Amino acid sequence: MLNNCAFMQHVQLNFKKLSYNEKLAAITDIVRAIDGVEVAHNILSQAENYSYKISDEKINECLTNMNPQNCEYIRTSVGFKGCPSNGYIGCYAEVIE
Q: Is 45 domain-assigned?
């Protein structure tokens, strides 16, 4: 996912500067990958106010009540201009069913 997605690269390099919406869009995608919950915790732990319990609750909310975010949403609603206008990056991960 990281190798093929400019947004995920942006998240990894700039996590502490990201808006809540950028972090949330990333987490909705990350948690669906194999080992995604663990990876999400590793990423979220970079926050100064990190709490395992609160992060776990948000991760569970992402899995149960939110859809993974696509390129178009990330570009238009989140405001990340690195996503292509055709909405396809090839940002695939092995997904948990």
A: yes
